[in-house]
Amino acid sequence: MTATDWIDRLCLEPHPEGGYYKRTYCSEEVFLGNIEQDPFPAGRPHSTAIFYLMEAGDFAGFHRIKSDELWHFHEGSQLELYILRSPDRMELIRMGRGDALQAVVPANHWFAAVPARFSDYSLVSCTVSPGFDFRDHEMASAAELIEQFPSHAELIRRLCRF
Description:
The protein is mainly beta. 13% of the residues lie in helices and 41% in strands. The protein has three helices and eleven strands, in the order αβββββββββββαα. It has helices at residues 3-10, 142-148, 153-158, and strands at 13-14, 20-26, 48-55, 60-64, 68-76, 79-86, 89-95, 102-105, 111-115, 121-129, 138-139. A hairpin with a 2-residue loop joins β6 (79-86) and β7 (89-95). The longest helix is centred in the first third of the chain and has 8 residues, at 3-10. The protein is globular, with a radius of gyration of 16 Å.
């Protein structure tokens, strides 16, 4: 199947950080908003999941969220997932057949994803716990991220949208 076939079959829509997505799961259990016990506001689901597809030439720009995110590889070509761990340490996880089939991005870490060179598309799903909410989604400014991670300036310029 082609990327377009998957986009149509899964009813995917454009995602603000690049690629296409569709929410496929949202837990019925939610946080109650007890400030002393819940790190998230009332009504936040415990977990959510999406399908996410990126075509060749597209990328998920550097961003971070307040929850752990588990990536699952499904179809297509190899995907490169970049996680900024510290000012001097960047982790590259290659996902795909013969590579990692799952990868975790810890909460509050800047990360980006891109189909590997010569890839047609990459189809993954992402599970977020506690559940994803766009209020927790922060897109990186290249200039600000380079100040924090100067040794990764070239990668940051390539994979930032702002």
